[in-house]
Amino acid sequence: MTSASIFVIIPAYNEAAILRETVTPLVKAGYTVVVVDDGSIDQPAAALAGLPITLLHHSVNLGQGAALETGMEYARRHNAEAAVHFDADGQHSPEQIPDFIAPIARCEADVVLGSRFLRPEDAAQTPAFRRLVLRIGIIVSGVFTGLWLTDTHNGFRALSRKALEEIRLRENGYAHATEILETIRRKKLRYIEAPTAIRYSAYSRSKGQSFWNSFNIVIDLVMERLFR
Question: Domain containing 143: what range?
């Protein structure tokens, strides 16, 4: 599996201040980088000018799930061998991507899910209130999907070509993370968790998920089941 056959999908909404810094090391590593501008008003195209990446646009803000699905569809159409979901705000480390891809390349997993709670040193870096929010997410996802993981709303994950074909997101918002787990269970995809260190800069802390976003995940999931 070559670096160019690995598509790194970055959903971005008003992240121009940090976007070039996030993308540049991925380009240097040889990955195919797909940034999905989810209706931003801060000129992401200008921030990325001159970089050999693909920039896709939503005319209005649809949500992180919708942005990921747009990027995944691009990856499907362009014969990606694997796809990586990667946050725009600089929290994730490009150096960890090979560790996520390795189990897929060895045919040991279809999906590799990042976890902040497999190593004590990674868990210690997570702010206390965010740990509480994440624990709520674990319970919500476990109840709705039957998969009980250590960290179910981590945006860092890798998908094999098979998983890329099977996982088709309908949830536009944050509830897409639980939808991914539900699809893994329903389609019997093989999955593992991999330890990941999250870099909590002042910028990424300001953009982090709040308690109300977790509450909205619950509402989205309930409404989706009532009206599916």
Answer: 3-227
